[in-house]
Design brief:
By secondary structure, the chain is an alpha/beta fold. Helix content is 31%, strand content 23%. Strand 8 and strand 9 form a beta hairpin. Helix 1 crosses helix 7 and helix 2 packs across helix 3.
Length: 472
């Protein structure tokens, strides 16, 4: 990204600009992040430790649940001050803290919410997880936590080198939409909105409600000619398939940005093939905000370790080695409204190994396979990521949309929306590709449907394990 000049605070301070107070605060954090991204892991852990201890002390001071847990681990303020812990001792006590489960967060509710924030942390608001599991988690958040979310979003803009003067189109849910028909619902604003527009001048942005037929979405994209497009990966995949199937020449795009879902394996290649544009994926959650951003140079994900402690643990609770896949455990460091210490967010991640081509030393993830609730259950009762021959199946170009449902421990069903009926050879290809990928352990069937609806929040479950598959 070129270094744009911030909005000046007053006339006559144009360059080097004296920024307005909100922008100055964001730029101050961004400057510190520019240095910490090159710290060694030990330096970063030492720099972060006072923030972790401030969070724990606040939690122990206001919430009996955390007071008891931290005292049992020897991490309450009194024990820590008496012990003068070395970093090794501190890490050992940290690892002894029990994992906070999603079920605990749901059942404890207000017992995890503080009644008072420290000075400067602002007000307490609330966000809600997607609820795609059927049981959403409500998270209290502070104004300060939202500020840090903005700062890390700015970091991602810088990392990706985005041209802030460009036209930015988001195809997401627009809660201001009132009429639910097949018409295009599009809103335009003069800038990209916070956080970018708080600091720098930007081009215009557009919000296109996703509840519109694909044909109309593609037509709107062609008319708007955006430089950047941000949407759900599954919806982007449908847009690209439609453009290819209808031989539509999409306008030039500087970057596609996938949010809210794991990207299908073929999506990045399809963006290059059909749109000649790179794909950027982000790893965020309602409970935590940004957790990892995709590196422009290496293509892997850098953990945002200044914002959260992120652990990837194996079945025995030990840190995963590079190449291993494990459960993601996260501790957001700046949300004092509802401290979540060693919270199991329900995701899986594969640990990567440095160094990264970009030179940054932040920890790396090689892959983020998906959420634990989306794992396939083998006939033995074991769970694993749902590898079902996705790339091979998608070679059948008539398939416009698909969803894989595990209906029992030994059967999966491919629900397909197709542009034209599949030939018997294409059906056989789908079934054989899936059967081979699943290791012959499952029967495979096909169900044709007119439409596969998204959840109310706009997300799409490419794989779903029905509840009866674990009980039969």
């Amino acid at each position: 990204m070129n270094s744009p000049t911030p909005h000046p605070a007053f006339p006559g301070a144009v360059w080097p600009a004296i920024p307005q107070a909100p922008a100055a605060a964001l730029l101050a954090v961004l400057g510190q992040l520019a240095e910490s991204q090159f710290m060694t892991h030990e330096q970063l852990a030492m720099a972060r430790r006072p923030q972790v201890e401030a969070l724990m002390d606040h939690a122990a001071g206001q919430l009996p649940f955390w007071r008891d847990r931290l005292r049992a681990a020897g991490l309450d303020p009194k024990t820590r001050s008496q012990a003068a812990l070395t970093m090794r001792e501190w890490n050992e006590r940290w690892a002894s803290l029990p994992i906070l489960t999603r079920a605990e967060v749901q059942s404890l509710g207000d017992q995890l919410r503080v009644s008072q924030l420290p000075d400067g942390h602002g007000n307490i608001g609330e966000s809600v997880t997607s609820g795609s599991s059927g049981r959403p988690v409500r998270i209290a958040r502070s104004t300060l936590d939202y500020f840090y979310w903005q700062a890390f979003q700015l970091r991602e803009h810088v990392w990706r080198g985005r041209d802030l003067s460009g036209r930015f189109l988001s195809i997401l849910r627009d809660d201001r939409r009132e009429v639910m028909d097949e018409s295009v619902h599009l809103r335009q604003t003069a800038d990209w909105g916070p956080p970018a527009s708080v600091v720098w001048p930007t081009g215009p942005s557009f919000l296109l409600d996703y509840r519109t037929p694909i044909r109309a979405l593609v037509q709107t994209i062609c008319e708007l000619k955006p430089d950047y497009l941000c949407t759900f990966p599954s919806l982007l995949l449908e847009i690209l398939r439609h453009a290819r199937g209808e031989e539509i020449q999409l306008p030039p795009l500087m970057e596609a940005i996938g949010v809210g879902e794991a990207s299908p394996p073929e999506l990045a290649g399809l963006c290059r093939e059909i749109w000649d544009a790179p794909l950027a994926s982000t790893y965020t959650a309602a409970e935590t905000g940004a957790m990892a951003y995709q590196c422009r140079e290496g293509g892997r994900w850098h953990l945002q370790s200044e914002k959260s402690i992120i652990e990837v643990l194996d079945a025995e609770g030990q840190p995963c080695a590079p190449g291993e896949t494990g459960r993601v455990i996260v501790t957001p460091l700046h949300n004092f409204a509802m401290p979540l210490i060693r919270y199991e967010i329900g995701d899986l991640a594969t640990v990567g190994e440095g160094p990264c081509a970009c030179g940054r030393t932040l920890p790396i993830l090689d892959a983020i396979p998906g959420r634990a609730r989306d794992l396939i259950m083998l006939p033995s009762g074991e769970l694993r990521p749902p590898y079902y021959g996705h790339s091979a199946v998608m070679k059948v170009r008539s398939i416009r949309q698909h969803q894989v449902i595990q209906t029992s421990r030994d059967h999966v069903c491919f629900r397909l929306v197709v542009a034209q009926p599949l030939t018997s050879e294409e059906e056989a290809h789908v079934i054989k590709s899936a059967t081979d990928a699943l290791g012959g352990a499952f029967g495979v069937s096909i169900e044709y449907v007119v439409e596969i609806l998204r959840s109310p929040n706009g997300k799409f479950a490419e794989f779903e394990r029905r509840s009866d598959s674990s009980n039969d």
